[in-house]
Every structure is written in structure tokens, then in C-alpha cells.
Amino acid sequence: MNSNLRSAGIIGTVVAVLMSGPSVSPAQTATFEPIEPFAGDPDDILAFGDMTADGSILIGVNKSFAVGAATHVIWERPAAIDCIRDSDSTCVGLAIQNISGDGAFFSGWDEPNGGGFRWTPGSERELLLPAGATNPYDHIVPTFLSHDGSVAVGSTFLGGLIRAFRWTAATGVVDIGGEPGADVFAHAASSDGRVIVGSVNTGSGRRAFRWSLDDGMSEIDLGGDVFSEATAVSPDGRFIAGYGDVPGQTGSGFTWTAADGVRSLPFPPGLAGTQQPIAVSRDGHIVFGTIFVSGTGVQLAFVWDDLHGTRLLSDLLLEQGANEVSGWTLATIAAASDDGLTLTGIGVESAISSSAPWLATISAPARRGDTNCDGNIDGADIEAFVTAVLSPAGYAASHPDCEILTADTNRDGIADVADIDVFLSMLLTAP
Q: How confident is the model at residue 26 (pLDDT cuts 50, 70, 90)?
């Protein structure tokens, strides 16, 4: 459709339409559950470190003090946790650390020979090596697999130098570049492996970067020669999160897009320290991570979204009805699904003062522009937007489970006619 015709139609609808009757939005719900160790021994230590794109499969390590060994485990929900098995049903002895988004491939690091590998059940492991006959590296450690398992990203180690690499079967292990002689750390990658984010350790400290297969490496500018690290990226590579000395807020988390540049993530009220993002949802709407609270040694899992700012994950779970989290301090988030609605991490239960892994699911937080709370920003939001602007009481009555500030598209703290232009822009640019 011609964009001018589309714009004119939307404007006409916004001006003309008021809600003619009430609608009912679904109540938000969340779940929280502690995860028992693999063999049921409460003295074991279990931690999950990665999951598939849809959050249905988790992988991790179960350390048993009784037998003095570690078992690499897989949890294909809702089945029970099990060891990672080969196609003949035997438990494999591979040190597996990552799983591809589709669940077909695994990667890890073979400590005795220093080599990274990719593996799928029923096949021999495939070593991740540079092209050619010689491997110059002491260690090659993958930390990420693409959705289809065709790309691995990680770090090479040679003497005291750490460099970020990207691997495909066609290219082998390839250094992604950066300042010669400087440590380069790859912290995260897009689901297709075409975008990598991390930091370069320059002579004056670490600096966040974005690397793409098309454009190479570029620094993420926080507004000066200051410490920064990019630690998470959305599956499509458009939204980046990290932390650093954002002007006016040392140690703050930040988000970055090509269109908006850097935006600081505020700390929850009463907290300060360092915010380290670990994951960004597919649409860039949600950021998860850990707050390292100043002077306490305490770690707290957080969630940020554009409408509500930064909150403790435990507070969001309670707000969404997951009362099982009461009595828990959620310390870290280790992995999240692509949509940001399935999470795993480590927490401490106050009754026994013991840390344990947990699994949580949340409902997507309300977002600006999605005034009818159906999860999309589209023409179906027009009537609700008009009601929110012209009749806040009417909006509260017709959308009791929605938040009126979803209509506050210009972020000035009130839903009014000043939001119309931004709302129209959202409708016109929505996927």
C-alpha cells in the first residue's frame, strides 16, 4: 500500500474512533520452580547455562560430591533431567557447554587437547580448527552456537592473548579482528551468527564493540573514552545491551540500536553498583541481567523494559502471580529464550540459605503503543489509544488488565494528545 494512503487512513481512524464497548484482556501469569539436582542428592550442585530458542530444552552441569564427578545434563521439558546421550542411548563424556537454537547441535571444549568441538548425537565430534594444516592456538573455546548450529563463536588463547573467533565449516576458525595485540572478547552473537558483540581491551581499558559479517567491527560509543562492554544482543542482531560508565551513571547497563544510539538503564530504587545484561529478547523490548550491589557482594537478577524501567525479577514474578518465588533471592540469570519469556538462573532460598537453580516463565510486560495488550502494535490498538487519551476512566473500565501508560508513546509520563505523532509513527513502522 502507498505509505501516504496508509498514513491518511490511520490518522482518520485515530481521529474518528472511540471505543464502542468494553473488551477484556487476559490476566498476566508467571511461574517459578526450583530445580532438583540430577541424581536427587541435595548436596549436588546443578546449574544450567544455555537453552534452545523456544526455551524447551536446557543444558547444564551436575556436580556430584558423592562420586566426585560432573555430569553434563539435558532437560527436555517436561521430561525429567537426564545425562546428554548419544544416539545409542549411552551418556556421553563430552564437556558440552552450548546448544544450538534448534536443539540439533552441541558445542564444548575438550580440556585435555585444548580444542573446541561441535557435535550432534550419532556422529563424531567435529573439532573447531583454523583452515589449513596447522593450529597455532593453545586453546579454542566456543561459547555460542547459531540457531542451526552452522556458526560457532568463542575465544582463542595463545600465550597470554585472547582473541574472538567465528567458525563455519567452510572458513574454519577466523579471528574477527580488532586492535592487533589487544585482547578481544566475544560475549554474545545473533541467532544467525552474523553479528557478534563484546569488548576490546585497549591500553586505557575495555571498549564495547559490535561486529557484523557485512561491516566488520565498530566501537559502541558511550559518549567518551570510558569503560564499556557489550554483553548481550537480540536474536536478530539489532538490539545490543551492555554496561559501562554511561555519562552520569557509572556502572550502568545500557541498550544500543543504530537508530537510537545508547540509552542508560536506570537502577531500581535504592540500589547502585554494576548492571550486567545477559540477554535481550527477540524484539529488543526486554533486557535481563544481574546487578552487583555496591559494597555488599550481593547479586540480584533484574529485568528491564521501556515502560516500567528496571525491576528485580523476583518483584515481576510476584506481580504476575508466581508466589512460589517468595523467600527466594534470585541472584543471576544464566539463559533466556529468544522471546525473553523463559528464564533460568541461580538463587538462594532463605529458609535453608542454600543456592539452587530455578526455572521461571513470565508474561510479556506491557509495552508502549500496544494499548489493547494483545502483544502487537497495529491497527487494532487505535480504538484503545483514543480511549486512553480522551477518557482515562473509560480506558480503565474497558481494559482493566492493561496499563494506560502504554499510550504514553512520547515517554513524558502522561497519555495525552502529545502522544499521537509517536503513536502514528509506531503504527507505520511496525513489522
A: very low
